[in-house]
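Onboarding guide, step 5: your first structure request.
Type a short instruction followed by the sequence, for example:

Predict the 3D structure of this protein.
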Amino acid sequence: MKKALLFLLPLVFVITETQAQISFTQTDSLVATPNSNDTIGAFARIFYHQPRNKFYVVYAARQYNSADPAGLLRKFAWVEYDTNLSPTGNSGYLPGFNSAGDFAMLMIDSTYYHLTVFSPGDYLLSKYDDDFILLDTLQLRIDSCDSNIDQLLNYTNGRLIIGAMQETTDCPPINPPQSSMQPHAHIFQYDLNFNQLTAPVVLSPVNFCWGSSMIFDGAYYYHVAHENFTTRDLYSYKFDSNFNYVSQTLLSGDGQWAQGVLWDAPYYYVAYHTGDHNRGNILLGVFDVNWNNVYTQSITTYPLVVNGFNANRPFLLKLGNMLYISYDVESYINAPPPINQKDWQSHVKAYQVSIGTGLAEKISEESVFDIFPNPANDFVNFVQRAGSFSEPRNLAVFDIQGNKVRSLTIRGDRTGLFTGDMAKGIYFYEVTGPQGVIARGRFCKN
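The system replies with structure tokens like these:
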């Protein structure tokens, strides 16, 4: 017989309402370019190789002594670093390219997946081993009205999610964007062996998916993208598992190019560009399971002046309590509008993340959850005593990898959590209300 145990039967938890407090302490920084090989580094992404205990930074590169015009890049470069972000001396270039430009890249286990432009009507998806040896490629045909720049690439829900911005009034869409554009995200899904899983789908909301991200929480997809270039509102767009639109949540009134999005329970971390598209900075937003902002950290603080610097294209890597943010910086002159100099340089900053709790309000002795596992019907019952809270509270359950497996509402009477289809193991729950995180706990499914 399946059982769901919470160590004692019944268990009574006294819930003290608290709100999470987060702090970021910068511990290190890295200017990856220029270096002994390359004068330019754009679209920087940082990865960690656990067996080797080494970091790798990959970027689109312009080599020394290049006679190419400004902005024309020929190689995708990689550089190895130790745990102090000092170069080890190992570096090289990805095989298979005669030119380089906009790209996205992921590391899954010890394998790299790289997406870039192949021709005006194609993407090129490439797979590399951990020595950057080419293993496989896929020429992915996109539509004539799809943009081939600033690709979306994420691995979530056991699949590669690839996105192109589709604009049917401008084929293909051009940059800078036009005020008349009404673009949509065109989504492709592949497994890690480059087998297409489903037919491509065009998402219904109008937004600019250039430099956007997608993540799956076990029930819903969330597409983090900015609505347009006029208001620059950054949203989390919610879709069901078949990509039917559900709702959207405003994350920032000044955000775009959110290429850095990850989940590390109990928070989403979103790195994005703020300010004018070609002159501005990078912010890091921290959000709870309902996409409520709980903290914002400035990563760069360049002033918006006539001649200055633009930080953009952030990417995130989280290892325990350390968060690494890679991005590029380009200079500009004579703003506004800025004349960008195409002199991108790759940067990395490292932060130690501390998460604590602070007392938000005093809760009386009646504020108690009685938690009763019922092995007979595979339920765990959360019973809220009358008068505990004036409003319903949200309960989210996560597995040990941090994937959200359940989401339900706790009301004043009784809420049952079905565990019959949950695997054996430890699970964590988080209760949230209007003021943020209230409580966290765990239980064991046997």
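Each response can be followed by summary notes, for example: The chain has no helices and 34 strands.
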